[in-house]
Amino acid sequence: MASGENQSSSDNQPRRWHHIRKLLERSGPFCHPDFEPSPEILDFIMDSCKVLIVGAGGLGCELLKDLALMGFKKLHVVDMDTIELSNLNRQFLFRKNDIGLSKAKCAVEFVNKRVPGCEAVAHHCPIQDLDEGFYRQFHIVVCGLDSIVARRWLNGMLMSLLQYNDDRSLDQSSVIPLVDGGTEGFKGNARVILPGMSACIECTLDLYPPQKTFPLCTIANTPRLPEHCIEYVKVIQWAKENPWGNNTALDGDDPQHVAWVFEKAQDRAVKHGISNVTYRLTQGVLKNIIPAVASTNAAIAACCATEVFKLASSCCVNMNNYMVMNMADGVYTYTFNAEKRPDCVACSNSTRIVEIEPDATLQMIYDKLCEDPVFMMKSPGITTVINGRNKTLYMSSIKSIEERTRDNLKKKITDLGLYNGADILVADVTTPNTITIKLKFLENQDVEMAR
Amino acid sequence: MASPSPKSPEQSEKTKQYDRQLRLWGDHGQSALEHGHICLINATALGTEILKSIVLPGVGAITIVDDKAVSDEDIGSNFFLECSSKDLNRGTEALRLLLELNPAVRGHAVQEPTDQILRENPDFFKAFSVVIATSLGEKTIQDLAQHLWNINVPLILCRSVGFLGSFRIQMKEHAVIETHPDNEQTDLRLDAPFQSLADYLDSFDIDNVDLKDHGHIPWIVIIYKAVQKWQASNQNRWPMSRKEKNEVKSIIGEFIRRDENDVPINEENFEEAIRAVNTALMPTYLPVKSQELLYCSAATNLTKDSTPFWIMCSALRGFVEGEGKGKLPVKGVLPDMTASTDHYIKLQNLYRTQAAMDAEIVYRKVQQIVAQLHCDNISEADVKLFCRHAHDLHLISGSSIASEYQLTSSVASYIARHLEEPDVMMVHYVLLRAAEMFASEHCRAPGDWEPESDSAKLKACVTKLLSDVSCAPFPKDDHVHEMCRYGGAEVHSVSAFLGGCVAHEAIKIVTKQYKPVNNTFIYDAASTNTATFTF
Q1: How many CB pairs under 8 A join A and B?
Q2: CA separation, residue A220 to residues A224, A237, A247, A252, A432 (Å)
Q3: Separation CA A137–CA B445 (nearest Å)
Q4: Pathway it acts in (chain B) (predicted)?
Q5: What is residue B158's DSSP assignment?
Q6: What does the pLDDT read at residue A374?
Q7: Are the Cβ atoms of B514 and A328 closer than 8 angstroms?
Q8: What ipTM was assigned to the predicted interfaces of this complex?
Q9: DSSP E strands, A212-361
C-alpha cells in the first residue's frame, strides 16, 4: 500500500480509534494522578511516541500487532533471527513461504500492510550492533527475548543512558522505561522496569532458574537417563569421531547432525539398558529447546502491551512491578513488587566493591564474578590500570590473549600489581559497558563477610 | 569426505512445525486437538484473538457464527479484519484472514443470528467440541447456555470491556488423566515394598562393599537400610515426626565412610539420601481425591453409557480393594539419583515391571466390566496411562450458567461472601453483570455516549443485583463511574490477553490434558490482577 494512502487513512475512518479514545479522553476514579484526559494523548501515541520492540519471535509478533492496534505508529523492531518452520506454531505474522527471511522485516511488512498508518521499521541485526544514539531515541523499550544474556545486555544499555545531576540525584528525563516479557511452556512473566528507579534485570538475577547441567563423570561413567547418553555423544563422542571431518562443529539445526547424534546415543542407551532416547529428546537436549505455545505468548505479550500503553498515556497506574503467570493449573497470576538492590551492578550508580582475601589469586576473583549472584558473568575479561597504563590481567574472548594471560589466573593478585582499593575493569557479554570494581582486602579471614 | 548418512528417518513437516508444542501435550494431545471443532459466536477482537491461538497450534476445524457487518471500530481493534472488509460480513472476513495462519485448519462461516439458530436448528451445536461466545446479550446467553448444558457441549462465555475481562466455562463434567502437576510426588513404596523390590533392597550389604561401589549405591537403598536400623530400636515403627526423620538422617551420616584421618569422605549419594529423607519417607497412601473418585456414584453405578474414565475408575477401585491392598498401582517412575548404571537400571526396571503388572490387573478388570456392560472396548494403552496417573486424576463437576444468572441461593451466598471479604475482583464481576443488564434494558453499553448520565442507570442495575444476593449497596460509586468511562470500549491488548487465556482453556478441554479454570476467571488489566471463582 502506498504511504500516501496510509497517512490519510486515519482521517478517513474517524471512528477507527473510538475504543481507546474512550480511555484517553475520559477521566476515571482509578486514573494515574497526573492523568489529564485529552485527544492530544492519542496524537502523542500516534505521532510522537517511539517504541522499540526487541525480538520479533513469539512475543515480538504479538507485541507488534498489539501496539499497532493500540494506536502506536512509530514502532521499531530489532531481531537478528531468520524464520524457521518450528516458529510457525505461534509466530503468526510468518508463513511457510517466509522461511529463511528476516523475522524483523517480515513482521514489520505484514503489520504495516494490515494496519494502515503504522510505520514500523525493521532492524535485522543483533542488539549489540546498535549504539547508544540508537537506543536513546526511544520513549519506551519493550522486550520479548528468549536469551537472558541479551536481556542483561539491553538492561545494561538502558542503565548506561541514565544521567545524574550534580547532587547525584537521577535526571528523570534520561529514564527510558523497559517492559520485559518472557515465556516457557505454559508459564510466563511480565514486568515494568524504570531504570535507576525500580528493580532492574540485574537486581533480580536470582529469579531465573539455574541452567540444568549434567556432571561430566555421570555422562562418561554412570549414565542413567536418556539425556546422559545424548550429552555423551555431544560432549565426547562428536569430537572424538569427528564424523564430518575438518573438526566440523555440531550443529543442532542440521538434521543430519541430529540424526547422527540420535543414532549414537541410541547405541549407547542400548548398551547400558537405558530406554526412551528419541529423536525429539535428542533435538531438545542438543538445542536446549524451550517448549512454546501461541496462547501463553499471546497473554504475556498482551500484558506487556497494556503496560506500554499505560506508560505512554498515564491513563492508569503501571503494574508494580513483576507479574508471574502459570497456565498449567487453571490460570494463575501473581503480581509483586520486586525490590531494587542497593548494590546492583547495573542500576545503583554506586561503586561496586568486591571483598577478597589479600592472598587471593586472580582465579578467585574470576570465579567470584561468575558465581556471585550479584554478578553472574559468563566469561569476564579483567583489566586494570597500573601507573597510568592499561594492563590486561585475563581475557578469554580472544584466543591469543587468553593464551598469553592464562598463567595470571594462578598468580596472587598482589603479585599482579593489585592492592587494597585498586580498581579492576571488567567486561562481559552480559553488559555493554565495562564495569569498574574496587577491591577491598579483608583484614583477616576470621572476619565474617558483610552481606 | 562423504558425510555419514543417517539411517533414522527425518521428522515430518508437521512434526517440525508443531515441535515446540508437542513437547507440552505430546503426539496424542496433538491428535486430539486435530479432531477438535471449535465454534466461535461473534468475530469480535476478543473472538478472533481466541481463534488465532487455536488455529496456530492446528485445531481440526473452526466455525464462526456472526451476522454482523464490519464497522470502522471493528477494523480499529481487530487484527483479522482489514480496511477492505468494511461493510462485509464480519465472520466471513475474519475466517478468511484466520485460515491464512494455518492451511491445515478447515473453516466455516455461518451468517445467521445465534437466536435464530437456537430456534430453528438447535442440533447445529452438537457438532462442536467447544462453543466460545463473545459479546452476547443477557437473553441469548441464557438460552444458549441452557441448550449447550442440555446437549452436553462445553461453552466458554467471554467478555472484554475497557480494562476488565472475564470468561466463564460451563461443562457438566470434565475428567483429566494427564494433569501434568508441577511437582509430582514420587511413589517409591519404601514403607511397603513389593516383593521384588524388597528382595533387591535386602540383597545389599552396604557395610561390606569396596569404596567405589559404596559411592554408587542408590539413595533408595541407603534410606531403606537406615530406616531398618532405626526400626530395630523403635519397635519396627515407621519414622514419621521431624525428630524421627532427623534420627534417620544421622544414621545415614554414620554410613558415610571416613578417610585415614577420620574425616568423612565426600559421597554424593549419601548426601542425596539425607536430602531425600523427608519426601522418601512419606507413607504410601490412597490420595483423598482419588478415593473420592473411586467411590462416587458414577464409578460405583456403571451403566452401558458410562464413559471410559468411570469404567477405569471402577476397575481401579477393584484393584485398590483387592490386589493393591489399599494402594494405587505403582507409578513406575524412578527419579534420577547418583548410582552406577547397573544399580539404577535394575531398580528402574523393578518399578516399571511392577507398574506394568499392576496395570495389567486393572486392564483385566476393565475388560470384565466392558464385557458385562456390552460397551466399547478400552485399549490397554489407555488403561496404562490411566494407572500411571492414578495419583493425580482430576475431575471437574460443573455448574450451569442458568443457575448463576438466576442467582440461586448458593450462588447468591457465594457472591455475598466474597463481597463481604471484601474482594475487589468480585466487585468487578458484579459490575460486568450489571453492565450486561444495563445493555439489555437500554440497548447500548453503559457510557457508550455519555458516561455521566448513564452512571445513575448503571448504579440501579448494580443495586438490583446486590439486593438479589442480599448485600448492601457499595459505599462508593467509583467502580460504576469507571465502567461508564469504558463505555463498552474493547481495548485490543485486554482482548489479546483474554484471547490467549481462553484459547488455552479450549485446548485443555479438547486435549483433556492440564487442569482448566473452574469455572470463572476475572481479569483487571488496570491493576494487573486476576482471580478465579467457582460458581
Answers
A1: 274
A2: 11, 10, 21, 21, 38
A3: 40
A4: Protein modification; protein neddylation
A5: E
A6: 84
A7: yes
A8: 0.95
A9: 322-326, 332-336, 352-356
Query: If you measure CA to CA, which chain A residue comes closest to B489?
Result: A19
Residue A167: Cβ within 10 Å count: 5
d(CA A394, CA B342): 44
Residues B40 and B498: their CA atoms lie apart, in Å, by 14
Contact yes or no for A263 and B341 at CB 8 A:
no
Instruction: Give chain B's radius of gyration (CA, Å).
Output: 29
- CA-closest candidate to residue B138, choices B446, B415, B433: B433
> CA dist A232 to A16, A217, A223, A272, Å?
59, 10, 9, 13
First to last CA, chain B: 69
Interface contact B528-A223, CB threshold 8 A: no
CA distances from B531 to A16, A332, B160, B429, B498 (A): 32, 8, 15, 10, 13
**Confidence band for B38, pLDDT divided at 50, 70 and 90:** very high
H/E/C letters for each residue in B31-99?
HHHHCCEEEEECCCHHHHHHHHHHHCCCCCEEEEECCCECCHHHHHHCCCCCHHHCCCEHHHHHHHHHH
Q: What residues of A are annotated to the active site?
A: 217
| Grid cell digits, residue A56 | 520479533
Over chain B, what is the mean pLDDT?
Answer: 95
Residue with cell 547532587: A167
**What's the rounded Cα separation, in Å, for the pair B138 and A246?**
71
The residues, any chain, with a CB within 8 Å of residue B265's CB and separated by 6 or more, are B211, B256, B257, B258, B259
List domains and CATH numbers for chain B: 13-179+491-533 (3.40.50.720), 195-281 (no CATH), 288-397 (no CATH), 401-486 (no CATH)
> Can you read off the three cell numbers belonging to residue A229?
547418553
CA distance B477 to B461: 12
pLDDT digits (tens, 9 = 90+) for B363-414: 999 999 999 999 999 999 999 999 999 999 999 999 999 999 999 999 999 9
Note the pTM of the prediction, 2 decimals: 0.94
Nearest CB to B72; choose among A15, A69, A218 = A15
Per the document, the length of chain B is 535
For residue A109, pLDDT over 90 is answered with yes
Taking the C-alpha atoms of residue A262 and residue B9, their distance in angstroms, rounded to an integer, is 11
Q: What is the pLDDT of residue B10?
A: 61
> Using CB atoms, which residue from B8, B485, B514 is nearest to A22?
B485
Q: Is the pLDDT of residue A175 over 70?
A: yes
CB A357 within 8 A of CB A367: no
DSSP for A371-426, written as a single string: HSTTT--SS-EEEEEETTEEEEEE-SSSHHHHHHHGGGGGSBGGGGT--TT-EEEE
Provide, as residue numbers in chain B, all residues whose Cβ is less than 8 Å from the Cβ of A29.
478-479, 481-482
Identify residue B506 by its one-letter amino acid code. Answer: A
The H or E element spanning position A193 is strand A187-193
- Could you give the angle at which helices B424-442 and B478-486 cross, rounded to 10 degrees? 50
Q: Are A345 and A202 in contact (CB under 8 A)?
A: yes
Q: What pLDDT is attached to residue B7?
A: 52
Q: Say how far apart CA A307 and CA A180 lie, in whole Å.
A: 10
Q: Which residues of B379-412 are buried (b: 16+ CB within 10 A; e: fewer)?
A: eeebbbbbbbbbbbbbbbebbbbeebbebeeebb
Distance in angstroms (rounded) separating the CA atoms of residues A412 and B437: 78
> Which residue, among A256, A227, A229, A230, has the nearest Cα to A243 in the 3D structure?
A256
Amino acid, res. A230: I
CB B108 within 8 A of CB B15: no
Q: According to the model, what pLDDT value does residue B3 have? A: 52
Neighbours of B444 (CB within 10 A): 13
User: Which three cell numbers, joined as nine digits, stand for A172?
Assistant: 528523570
What tens digit of pLDDT does each residue of B485-507 get? Answer: 999 999 999 999 999 999 999 99
